[in-house]
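Design request, tokens follow.
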């Protein structure tokens, strides 16, 4: 379901990842970071916030993913058209290698088109796909719903096979 778009995903791999927190610890042997207090990750227009975060690295030492925890964890991004999209949940897993944000526990995503929620949401930043599990709820704002209805009614009927 391509409910919500993001800024140019093809540009993301070239963008640096900036991570800030009140305190942090780095385990040299495992290459893992543990951050706590006002954790903020930025990459281009994308910002992720949490109270605690742990990173996990690949064999080459590059950070593969960061798991973030809080009550709630949040993220926001600026879309190509200048509008914003935001999400929140109890836990976020930001996978840098696949460019996917997985939200767990009371997960919600909102933008001008509406809102999408469930116990787990997986958002593919490259393909702009959103998949939900666990009591999924979709709210479409009236203007967006009317526009989608017009687009569907403008489509030619498909012949029966």
């Amino acid at each position: 379901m391509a409910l919500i778009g993001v800024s140019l995903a093809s540009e993301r791999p070239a963008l640096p990842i900036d991570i800030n927190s009140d305190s942090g610890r780095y385990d040299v042997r495992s290459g893992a970071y543990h951050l706590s207090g006002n954790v903020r990750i930025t990459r281009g227009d994308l910002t992720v916030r949490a109270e605690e975060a742990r990173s996990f690295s690949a064999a080459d030492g590059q950070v593969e993913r960061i798991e973030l925890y809080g009550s709630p964890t949040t993220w926001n991004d600026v879309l190509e058209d200048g509008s914003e999209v935001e999400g929140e949940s109890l836990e976020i897993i930001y996978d840098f290698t696949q460019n996917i944000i997985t939200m767990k526990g009371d997960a919600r995503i909102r933008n001008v088109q509406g809102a999408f929620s469930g116990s787990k949401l997986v958002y593919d930043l490259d393909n702009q796909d959103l998949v939900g599990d666990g009591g999924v709820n979709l709210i479409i704002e009236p203007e967006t719903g009317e526009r989608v209805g017009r687009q569907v009614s403008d489509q030619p009927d498909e012949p029966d096979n």
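Comment from the thread starter after seeing the answer: thanks! Residues 41 and 89 are 16 Å apart (CA to CA).
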